[in-house]
Structures are given as C-alpha cells and as structure tokens.
Amino acid sequence: MSRRSKLLITALFLVLLGIPIGYVLYGWNVPEPLRFRVVAHEVEPEVPVPETTHHLRIEVQNTSSVPVYLASGVLFHDKTAAAMYRPWMQLTSLDSEDGLLPEFDGIREPVYIPAHGTWRGRARGRRPNADVVDLSQLTMRYQYASPPRLEILHRYWSACLYLSDSIKQRFDVEFYQRATAPVELSAAQGSVNNAKAP
C-alpha cells in the first residue's frame, strides 16, 4: 500500500471518529435551555379541610437548537423558597395518575423535548386557604440532559453493575444539568392573578 493511500485512510478514519466526538461535545453542555409558562390555573377547595388544591397546566419550551430530556421539575413559590429548597409541587406529565400526595408526583421517565419544541405538563399541590398564592413569583428548578449526555449516562449505569465501589467513586460525575428559571404567565393567567392580588 502506498504512503498516499495510508494517509488517505488515516484521514478518513479521523473524520469518521470526529463525527461522534463532535456530536457529543456539541450537545454535552446546554446552558438553561427551558422556559416555563402557566397556561391554566384552577383551584379545588378541600372540604372540610381548610386547604385548596391548585391545579396548574405548564407549557415547557426548549429554546435551544439541541433536543433535551427533562428529568425533573420542582416548583417553588418564589426565588427565596427555591434558594432554601422549600418546594411546593412537582412537574409531571398530563397523563400521569394522581397519587395520594399530589405535591410529590414527579416525572417518572425523562421527557423528550425537541429542539425549539414544546411539551405540556401539570403540577398540583395544596395550600392553606389563608395563603395568598402569587403566580407571578413562581420559580422552577429542573434537571435535564441532552441526548448524547443521557446516552453516556445510561452506558455508565450499565457499566456500574460490573464495577467495584472504589472505581465508581472515582467517576462521580453529574450527568444531569441543573438550572433555575422564573415561571411566566400567559396573558389570561396574568390578568386573573392580578385581579386576585390584594
């Protein structure tokens, strides 16, 4: 084989090797890709308990050019509650079954949201009737991963079945990214919320 042929084969090999590596690097770190918006809010008084159950429909928009998997979303009353991790309720899918503790019904499988796509979920939780719920202050803390990141995570979990604890401790990597975002209100929800404010 001539030297030119060897160089051509080597160059082709490097190009083919670079494609998956470039794909992983491009999608590995996606900073704060999701936006959240309340599109519906209903209340259900608990009788005779002095509490109200709040039902929220939340639209999630992926603003990035990379698809992401939403692994969890925790809703807080405001930024202060988010900083102190005092959660109100969990984001879940529309078709999920209601549990005994609605605040802790979370996303069971990561939800795929395409690039520049949307997904609708719901959240519900109880509050004492005396509490004023200001939807304009809601804050979401969420975990997410891009497809290449999640693929490597799954491979890592599979490999962990055969690795010793000492080796696993050396590869303590945060595969899911975390971010915090304010929850926006749709025009209708904003007017309703302003009307209810004292």
UniProtKB/TrEMBL annotation:
It comes from the Bacteria. This is Uncharacterized protein. It comes from Roseimicrobium gellanilyticum.
